[in-house]
Specification:
Blueprint lengths: L3 E8 L5 E7 L5 H13 L4 E6 L2 E6 L2 H13 L13
Antiparallel strand pairs: 1-2, 3-4
């Protein structure tokens, strides 16, 4: 449900209402900087970079990547976060 952005509810003809729902693709640009800052504050040996609407995290140790994923899952963001290919 976090990947859906609900618009205003508008009155339509008769007893019906209409609402525009937009599907979020990627992370909002202003939020990517916050995610990178959170990762850097962990003081792990990982490199994080912003790629358009994604944040890419690289590390030599898979344990460091798993620590970053665990921390991000524990945070309650107002948008959907998906993790892929952490190898």
């Amino acid at each position: 449900m976090k990947s859906l952005n609900f618009g205003k509810i508008e009155k339509a003809a008769g007893d019906t209402v209409r609402q525009v729902v937009a599907l979020q693709q990627g992370i909002p640009t202003e939020k990517t900087k916050d995610i990178v800052k959170l990762i850097k504050d962990m003081k792990l040996k990982v490199q994080s970079e912003i790629q358009k609407d994604q944040v890419r995290v690289r590390a030599k140790k898979i344990d460091d990547l798993q620590s970053v994923i665990k921390m991000l899952k524990e945070k309650d963001f107002d948008f959907h976060i998906d993790f892929s290919n952490y190898r």
